[in-house]
Design brief:
Layout (H helix, E strand, L loop, with lengths): L1 H4 L8 H4 L4 E5 L3 H7 L5 E6 L7 E2 L13 E7 L8 H11 E10 L10 E2 L6 H8 L6 E2 L4 H7 L2 E6 L6 H6 L18 E6 L6 E3 L2
Parallel strand pairs: 1-2, 1-4, 2-3, 4-5, 8-10
Antiparallel strand pairs: 5-9, 6-7, 8-9
């Protein structure tokens, strides 16, 4: 979905989003990194659990990253793994420049209105059953965009309805739906523009 969104025919072309920008990319996707690196003025990769990146960094606490020093921060399917995603959103807001952009994705259960967390679920089996994966700490709901907006972002939501039928087919944005209770069939990408005070949520059409 993100590759389609920043593609030539997408609503956020990579040359516009990343050109001469300072980019911090968490849990970096290799193909996306290859696309961004030649465009960015600075491209830094980060991860807390895995190696092969520039920085060993906890997204909930980034004291080594100065405030207002990042133009674009990317964190795809990261926030479901961290202990406190509200702290992560606060830190993302802090390190971004004024009008800086965070690009986020999270798993969202089909039909779930509110994000579900339960700290008492500690075994891998319990988390797999509740959150869809053994190392997930929550299952996000439809309220995610509003939560991000409440942390000081204007949020633009991209999903497959944003694209033409031709691009949906080309990028395989409409896979066969899963019937699993915790399935995340309708993926979304959240383009979150830093601002002062609560933001707004809009769907990109």
């Amino acid at each position: 979905m993100l590759s389609a969104a920043v593609g030539v025919a997408g609503p956020f072309p990579a040359r516009t989003v990343f050109c001469q920008k300072r980019v911090l990319h968490f849990a970096p996707e290799r193909l996306l990194g290859r696309q961004i690196r030649p465009l960015a003025s600075q491209y830094i990769t980060a991860d807390f659990l895995h190696g092969g990146v520039d920085l060993h960094l906890d997204i909930t606490s980034m004291p080594s990253i100065p405030s207002g020093s990042v133009d674009v921060l990317i964190a795809c399917d990261v926030l479901e793994h961290v202990s406190d995603y509200h702290l992560a959103l606060e830190e993302i807001h802090r390190v971004l420049t004024s009008e800086g952009l965070a690009i986020l994705t999270v798993p969202q259960e089909e039909g779930r209105l509110t994000t579900y967390e339960d700290a008492s679920l500690t075994s891998e089996q319990q988390r797999r059953e509740a959150f869809g994966q053994h190392d997930h700490l929550r299952m996000f709901g439809d309220d995610f965009a509003e939560q991000v907006a409440g942390c000081g972002f204007d949020v633009l939501v991209v999903d497959r309805s944003t694209f033409s039928a031709e691009n949906v087919a080309r990028h395989r944005l409409a896979p066969s739906p899963s019937v699993k209770r915790s399935a995340t069939n309708n993926r979304q990408v959240f383009f979150c523009r830093q601002r002062k005070g609560p933001g707004q949520v809009k769907q990109v059409r």
